[in-house]
Amino acid sequence: MAIQWFPGHMHLTRKAIAERIAEIDVVIELLDARLPGSSANPMLAELTGHKPGVKVLNKQDLADPERTALWLAHYNAQPATRAIGLDASQAAPARQLIEACRQLAPQRGSMAKPMRVLICGIPNVGKSTLINTLVGTRKAKTGDEAGVTKLEQRIVLADGFYLWDTPGMLWPRIIVAQSGYNLAASGAVGRNAFDEELVALELLGYLKQHYAALLEARFRLDAVAGLGDEEVLEAIGRQRGALLGKGRVNLQKAAEIVMNEFRSGSLGRITLETPEEFEQWLAAGQLL
Ligand code: G4P
C-alpha cells in the first residue's frame, strides 16, 4: 500500500542521534505494544553503534497480554537489551525504566558519572506521555518546583540520570508491506497519507483470523470467519447506521469506526503481529 512517507524525516532522526550518540550510555526505544516489530526503527542498532538498549512496549494496556509476553521474551533474548511493558501514564511502572537502564550500564548513574540516555520512538507512540510521567515522578519525589530541567533538550530525571529526546519520526525505508498497514491502523501515520478503507479492510482481515470473537462481540456480528473482509466492513457500517442514500453503506465512515475502536481499545486488547509473523514478513521481503 502506498503511504506518503516523507524522506526528510529519517535525516532529522539520524542527525539527532548522530549528534548525541558518542556520549550516550543507553538507548531507549519506545515501541507500540500492539505492533512492536512494525513500530521499531530497523536502522536503530546501526545508528546507535549497537549501544545497550531498552525496548519499551508501550500501550501494553491496549495490547494482547499473551503476545506482549512473546515480544518481551523475544527482545530479552537479544544481547545488551532489556525489554519492559508499560502504560506510559502510570508512574510506578515507568520507574522500571530507570532500573532497566541502571542494569544495562551499572557503572553509570552517579553525579561524577551520570547515566546518559537517549529516547526514540515513532509519532504517537507515547513519548511525551512517558517523559511527563517520569518528570512527574521526580517532581513528586523531590518536591523540585521546576520538575524538569531542559538544557539542550536534556531532561534531568533523577540525580545523575539524564535523558535526551529525539524527534518522533517515521523512517521511509525497509518497511514491510504489512507494517505500513499496521502503522496506519495504530494512528502513527497522518490520516491524509493513506487510504482508510484499505487499511480498515486489512485490519479486519487480520482480526477475523485472530480475534474473531472480539469482532463479533463488539459489532454484534455472527460468524465473521465465513465473510469476506468487505462484507464485514459493510455489516459494521449497517450495524452502526453509517449509510448513504438507498441503503448503501458509507464504507469510509465504517472504516473510521473500525479504526477508532481499534485505537481506543474499545474492540479489546489486540496485537497485530507476533515475533514469528514479523520474521516471516521480513523474510518474504515485501518491501514498500
Ligand atoms: P508522542 O509524544 O509519542 O507523539 O505520543 P503522546 O505521548 O502524545 O501519546 C499519543 C497518544 O497515546 C495520547 O492519546 C496518549 O494519551 C496515548 N498514550 C500514551 N501512552 C499510552 C499508554 O501507555 N496507554 C494508552 N492507552 N494510551 C497511551 P491522545 O488520544 O492523542 O491524547 P489524550 O487522550 O491523552 O488527550
TrEMBL record:
InterPro entries: GTP-bd, GTP-bd_ortho_bundle_sf, GTP-bd_ribosome_bgen, GTPase_MTG1, P-loop_NTPase. Keywords: Cytoplasm, GTP-binding, Nucleotide-binding. Signal peptide: none annotated. It is found in: Cytoplasm. It comes from the Bacteria. Its main location: cytoplasm. NCBIfam families: GTPase_YlqF. Required for a late step of 50S ribosomal subunit assembly. Has GTPase activity. This is Ribosome biogenesis GTPase A. It comes from Variovorax soli.
